[in-house]
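lol so apparently i was supposed to do this last week
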Amino acid sequence: MQIDPANIWDKEALPSQGSNDMNANPKASAPDKIKVIGGNPLHGTIPISGAKNCALKLMCASLLTEGDMHFENSPNSLRDMKSQTELLEYLGCKITARGSSMTINAGGVNELTAPYDIVRKMRGSILVLGPLLARFGEARVSLPGGCAIGTRPVDMHIKALEEMGAEIVLDEGYINARAPQGGLQGAKILFPKVSVGATENLLMAATLAKGTTILANAAREPEIIDLGECLIKMGAKIEGLGTDTIRIEGVSSLNGANHSVVPDRIETGTYMVAAAMTGGSVRLQNARLEHLSAAVGHLAQTGVELDQDGQDIIISRETGLRLQGIDIMTEPHPGFPTDLQAQFMAMLAMCEGAGMVTETIFENRFMHVPELNRMGANITVHGHSAIVRGVSKLKGAEVMATDLRASVALVLAGLVAEGETTINRIYHLERGYEDIVGKLGGCGANIRKA
Ligand code: EPZ
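anyway here it is w/ EPZ bound
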């Protein structure tokens, strides 16, 4: 099948030739920088979008049924959502997206290959493997390769599908997978390490398998619970969501369903840190405090005040209060999320005293450190840990973002730095933050695209 150029929303995300950055942007026609002048405390309300890391998987779950899937609170304007749309349309899905609603129909899927050119833009596309294999008995998906934060293999996805009877051959950079005669077989799968993506791929695959599948040492992220709840609405039989043992009873077919995407806890945590760093008071609308217990506990230790009002979170810092340095260590949920590590490090850079940040999930997730140091931070990395010695002020500088969360950490630093900070390569931000300039600007930040 040829890709219809009219359906490709996001060609800019293609890497430039010879670049080792999978998301590098060869064209600079659209604004590709954000300029921030620091010093304004934030006051106001920020609406929280639906979770990117859930919506991308819900889109893949649509491949499991011929029925219509209708999503609300879907973060459709994100670049990653557009890449996933491009992939699903390539496979033959019909997709309509309007505002924060999305409808997907996978009744006409006629292509079972997820090609390199689309998969290389976004690792989340590996999540089509389980659903395609479960519904159609075969799939060919490009290996996603490494990315800026680490090598990120998919060996556990592959091994677990083999345990369900799939025959898998890696050839010319592709995963060629075929289910046994009669379809995937239920199995008891023990993941050697907690993996969000492997849990999700296998959860989806097992819904249409023959018999019972047990996923042990499964990931427990709120996004996985939300995916599972949507699968249950589609007719799947699942128990144990949110625990480390998930039990799935395979069914012969699934139906369409309506589902509202869970609020983005990483976006929520990011704006919590923004409010804490700048001072003032911010209401985060339609957030879920209970999904952020580890991050909230750490924030409270720094001296920030947090309140809950229904589904809203109000975060404020007393004028003149200097936040206290704390130690953090990233862990699978319910531990401290790796996707908030860079943002917390930006905050620690200006705290009283020192803090230690230990990254246990990804091997190379400190690329924001040299950039923060260019802004006057005092951070040294020792293996998987970084010592952050708080300084009294940061200074604006021209900085370069290497991945989504590193980029937003630089925006946060810019909000409190003296003078102007220019963050280059904002297409990273557009992969995961809807209208960040509008949301921060609406609360008084001096921020614009350039
Ligand atoms: C998801 O990635 C998220 N991405 C990441 O968010 C997040 O950082 C990560 O989970 C951890 O919370 C999406 O949901 C699209 P993993 P995923 O499998 O599923 C190793 C962001 O900024 N591993 O839980 O790819 C892996 O290398 C992004 O929004 C294997 O060794 O993460 C890592 O060290 C970045 N073999 C660890 O497990 C495998 O087969 C956890 O990765 C799979 C993973």
